[in-house]
Amino acid sequence: MTEKLSAETRDTLLDPLKETGWEVVDGRDAIFKSFVFDNFVEAFGWMTRVAIWAEKWDHHPEWSNVYKTVDVTLTTHDVGGISTLDVKLARKMDSLAG
């Protein structure tokens, strides 16, 4: 079962994500990042690749797409905050955007 990140592991897991542009959402236990691509097709293609992993891991992002920008918020609703699933999906998103 997935659990909310503990105080002991939180910085260790989130600090590397912050270095790649992820930020903790004010007033909510969630992380956010805006991905910008060259055009709509690249943005939509990336979303499709991410969707395959999200479905496989049964962990789905909150996201929106306008033209070449995809805004993503990750949190684990079942535990009421950030979990290792969010960290895992954030890392996958970064690698797929790479």
Describe what you observe in this structure.
- The chain is of the alpha+beta class and about 100 residues long.
- It contains 3 helices and 4 strands; from the N terminus they run H-E-E-H-E-E-H.
- Strands 1-2-4-3 form a 4-stranded antiparallel sheet, covered by helices on one side.
- Helix 2 packs antiparallel against helix 3.
- The longest helix is centred in the middle third of the chain and has 17 residues, at about 40-55.
Q: State the distance separating the first and last CA atoms.
A: 30 Å
Profile the largest sheet. 4 strands, antiparallel
Strand order in space, largest sheet? 1-2-4-3
DSSP strand count: 4
Low-confidence runs (pLDDT<50, min 5 residues)? none
Structural class based on helices, strands and sheet pairing: alpha+beta
What's the short version?
This protein has helices at about 5-20, 40-55, 85-95, and strands at about 25, 30-35, 60-65, 70-75.
Main traits of this protein?
98 residues, alpha+beta, four-stranded antiparallel β-sheet, 3 helices, 44% helix, 19% strand, globular
List the helices and strands and how they pair.
Elements: H1 7-18, E1 23-24, E2 31-36, H2 40-56, E3 62-66, E4 69-74, H3 84-97
Antiparallel strand pairs: 1-2, 2-4, 3-4
Helix pairs in contact: 2-3
